[in-house]
Amino acid sequence: MLVTLLTGIALVLIVEGLVLALLPGRIEQALALLAAMRPETRRLVGLAALAAGTALVALARLLGG
Q1: Which residues does 57 contact at the CB level (< 8 Å), separation at least 6?
Q2: Whose CA, among 10, 12, 24, 45, lies 20 to 30 Å from 53?
């Protein structure tokens, strides 16, 4: 369980690091887009991402045994 948690955190850090390293200018654009959204819209986007991530983890566990 701990190994899985650490692997997940490591993968998030890798993806975030890649975005910062490869597309540093896009970060400001993404933050500006988020700042322009209403809080309710940001909440819905966050909930959709949470649901998608949960579904992907469930699918991976189902397929991986």
Answers
A1: none
A2: 24
